[in-house]
Amino acid sequence: MLPYEILRKIKRLEIKTSRLVEGALSGGYLSTFKGRGIEFTEVREYVPGDDVRAIDWNVTARTGYPHVKTFVEERDLTVMLAVDLSASMDFGTTTQTKRELAVEFAAAAALLAVQGGDRAGLVAYTDRVELFIPPKRGRRHVLGLLAALSTVSPQGKKTDIAVPAQALMRTLKTRSTLFWVSDFLDAGQPAAGHPAERGAPVLLKALSKRHELVPVVPVDRREAGSPASGWGAMAELIDPETGERILVDFSSRRFIKAFKDWRDSADKQRAALFNSLRAEPVWLSTGSSPITPLAGYFHRQSRRR
Length: 305
Hints:
Elements: H1 4-32, E1 37-45, H2 57-63, E2 67-74, E3 78-84, H3 98-115, E4 119-125, E5 129-136, H4 139-151, H5 162-171, E6 177-181, H6 200-210, E7 212-219, H7 221-224, E8 234-238, E9 245-249, H8 253-277, E10 282-285, H9 291-304
Helix pairs in contact: 1-3, 1-4, 1-9, 3-4, 5-6
């Protein structure tokens, strides 16, 4: 049994995201991620406004009255969430960390799947698989998934995207929609111990050929802005994944240049990865709702299809 405060948190998360999902996303989700095809249901008599292309000419000729074929979409979709829980995702300088934003996004995506009658599953990872929940349908399943994601205590601190990518290559047998939620700061090159052919870029590219992979990137405003604005003069920085500490002078031009070079390098690395995947990323910002950027993504995708 989950503690009462955790249950309240999950309920608040469900209410918050459900309202936003119902108002802004459902239509975009259904039009963007279509099922595997359409299934014939019946022939009925034509009524004004029906698509003339659906007329069944054999039945029309036999009965003497125009009839049309009707179909329903055969969805049978799977939505899989891959969520980065490494220590870098605990960074946040507003009212929210990147990890908290990732959980809120996962709630929206999972509730969309429920409303569409689709299956939802989860793999949460660091440099290992921390949590794996096979895809299923239903509100109860999704609430359990969100509860597990909200309460898991990661054993690892570092990031290795290749590990969950290999797990998903093994377990996802049918084409799925894969929302990959991460800052992707390690994804431009193989992690230590991985041969190049099994590194993150190669495995993500293989996944993108089998599935519809959507990168979702939580970013904190301090990562995108200048370190000289609002940080103060001196501060100790800690690398959350290695524990390394360094005293930094934020007014130093040398440090500002080094920070800008690191940020530009990370941006180029991610852009190259997303281009290789032919995937449009969804960019999220801490302290802001994930609904608006996700709705924008659905709008752009549906216009292209």
